[in-house]
Amino acid sequence: MLPDWIYDVVFVVAVVFLVGVYVSRRATRLDRLHVRVETARAALDAALVRRAAVALELAASRLLDPATSLVLATAAHEARTADAESREFAESDLSRALRAVVDQPDFTATVSARPEGEAVLEELAAASAKVVYARSFYNDAVASARTARRKLLIRVLPLAGRAAWPGFFEIDDDPPRP
């Protein structure tokens, strides 16, 4: 027969083990959420760069008048070269410039009449739609990570480590409607 204190020790070890497993699972989940945020951010950056490239292609295609081409090229260049602090504003400006270009009277008919025009319009629509989806996925990932980081266990035990608090990416991304 074993002494009674052995059962107490086994119980304490089992509780400590179970708490350790739970904390480990929480930390792993938080880490996966941060990886998801980083992956979504990379996809968003790729979509934004692609949209800016398509806008530059449209500006250089000679399908637009010179003034419109200059405005669009400037907005696309600003979006591609903006630093982290001004990126949201520059991307919103590009969205507005694209809508202004597409909203011109007879824009779609004029551009579609040219041989390369239809392909540029399709590429612009696809790139703009990808930006909308990528931003949505990124902001969803950020919301999940922020919710997880607000939990008491995550705050009491610094399970997030030194990871930066994820921030939302808010831009005017209404796509142009040709």
Molecular structure report:
The chain is mostly helical. It has one domain. It contains six helices and no strands. Helix 1 runs antiparallel to helix 2, helix 1 packs antiparallel against helix 5 and helix 4 (107-113) crosses helix 5 (117-149). The N and C termini lie far apart (84 Å).
The helix tally amounts to 6
The total number of structural domains is 1
The separation of the N and C termini measures 84 Å
β-strand percent reads: under 5%
Largest beta-sheet details: none
Number of strands: 0
| Low-pLDDT windows of residues | none
Which quaternary structure do these chains form?
Answer: single chain
The secondary-structure class comes to mainly alpha
Helix content: over 70%
Shape: rod-shaped
Summarize model confidence as the mean pLDDT. 90
Radius of gyration: 25 Å
Q: Topology as H/E string?
A: HHHHHH
Keywords: Membrane, Transmembrane, Transmembrane helix
Organism: Actinomadura harenae
InterPro entries: LemA-like_dom_sf
Protein name: LemA family protein
Record keyword descriptors for this entry:
mainly alpha; 6 helices; transmembrane; membrane; LemA family protein; LemA-like_dom_sf; 178 residues
How is the secondary structure organized here?
Blueprint: H1 4-60, H2 66-81, H3 87-102, H4 107-113, H5 117-149, H6 152-156
